[in-house]
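BACKBONE GEOMETRY TOKENS
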Amino acid sequence: MKASQSNRPFDPVVFWVSASVTILFVVWSVAFPENMNAVINAVFAWTTGSWGWLYLWTAFLLVIGCLALMGGKYGRIKLGLPGDKPEFSDFSWFAMLFGSAIAAGIVFWGPAEPAYHFMSPPPFFGGEAKTAQAGANAMTVSFFHWGLSAWAIYAMLTIPLAHACYTKGLPFKFSSAFYYAIGDRIHGIWGKILDIFAVFATLGGLATTTGLVALQLSSGLKFQYGVELGAGSTYLIIGILTAIFTLAVYSGIEKGVKFIGNVNMWMFAAIWFFVLLFGPTIFLINLTTNSIGQYLLNFLPMSLYTAPGTDGGWLGSWTVFYWAWWMSWAPFVAVFIARISKGRSIRQTVAATLLLPSLGDFLWYGVIGGAGIHFDVTETLNAHGVESAIFAIAQHLPATGILAICLIFLIATFFLTSANSAALALAMFVSGHETPARGLRAFWGIALGAVAAVLAGVGSLKAIQTASIATAFPMLFLLLLVMFGTFKGLGQISDDGPEKQ
């Protein structure tokens, strides 16, 4: 990169194209909401109907690739120069990594998805609803959607990006992940196209989560306290959250993001232990253990299951939606994880991005989701929507009022961690700087809230879900390209090179 470019506060082409299209999208959504919704639905139908099989193959191949990176000869390679040391403690590093990548989605779907599959068995297993086997199958499918396949999407993109930035001196941009695939062309028009795409994918992915969080917080206030904020509740909640995470990302990683990440990890662990101890403990342990075994046994067939002969678009509504959602998050999550992983080895980073988070998801789903199955909150889901599941579970546990407050706090802080890292990554995409200017970080924080408001404001979970699939489709091909480039680039490093741990 030329010195004159590196001294700029941002890349004018990437910034102005991204900012202009974002503003036009917000105007279009406000002025013609029905047209916007129709276009997104059309994209959803096309991608899930014609390309669902490629989503499955891509996620599966990424798992294989990540396991090869972690267990093979490349695992000892350092993401940094020989003298580089990790900037953060292991706990803070993992807290920020896990919180930024998982967000409040795990609090939303952790209790809701197993309960939903419990009353409506997935076609892979079939069988009778609301039986012991239906509960085990529901948990297994939930593990699949939040397990290795999902986290491999992040891990595979993080490794080449971190390695290129810390050892080759490349800017912290999404395009830097493709250095080993397309070489110096990342500094030209192709790099700008990649970074502009990353902005839109991030905005779509975060809008999905913001919509889910707004629905869940609104539902929680109504379900638990009878508080109805009116028709503008979604906008009010998003506005408050946007103000908080914009302020946090303006403060920087050390002061804002790290603090929130540490707090929500402690709260996450506390709520999990509370439900395990005061809920049906033995049932939850048995269900989790059984479902992990069933997940490992069925991982390959579930990974490539296209739901043949089924009607109703189950695959698009669940597995393809999840893979697309994770893919839309991948650009900003990978940049953020790369930013905080300086001095770590590839083996450490893949383990912390693939294995540990998958285990964390299994434990959360097994206990929180298992409690929803045990208490059978399906009637509440039918009456109040899937966003009410976590609060329905709280009704069956002691200290319900305190637990509900803690849950609302956890939902908000998890989301804030992701939104902080997304705003920071967006600023990196358009600037290439490891620490972008505060004003740039604040701008993208506000932009995230604006896009989320126009999408979530429709009040439809389906519309919110389709946004992530619409923006994530190109990631299918980009992830396959980056995996090829990663092994190609690492293979050129000498076995006795200076980049080994």
